[in-house]
Design brief:
Helices cover 9% and strands 40% of the residues. The chain is mainly beta and 98 residues long. The protein has a 5-stranded antiparallel beta sheet with strand order 4-3-2-1-5.
Length: 98
């Protein structure tokens, strides 16, 4: 708990997890935030960063910014944990470059 996580998921799953409703976006998006807890169905994440499928930062609604969301396990395609928030989150990899 308290570690920073960067999660890769489909844009559809990100919108379902954060907004509660999917749409027809294709591609992957990145979600970054601090892990606040774990549940049997996923992680509680205080989200402070979202990138859209093209890799550009998404504008967060100020009312939702830094809100804690349940990110269900099935929405997570890949993830990487950092001891603290990196200086730049936009292009952080969630896996290894091979």
């Amino acid at each position: 708990m308290g570690k920073y996580i960067v999660i890769r998921m489909t844009a559809r799953d990100a919108k379902t997890a954060i907004l509660g409703q999917p749409d027809d976006d294709q591609g992957f998006t990145g979600v970054g935030g601090t892990v606040r807890g774990e549940a049997p169905v996923g992680l509680w994440v205080d989200i402070d960063h979202v990138t859209n499928p093209s890799g550009r930062p998404a504008v967060l609604d100020r009312k939702r910014e830094h809100a804690t969301f349940l990110i269900r396990w099935e929405y997570i395609t890949n993830a990487r944990v950092y001891p603290e928030k990196p200086d730049s989150v936009d292009a952080l990899p969630t896996g290894l470059y091979l």
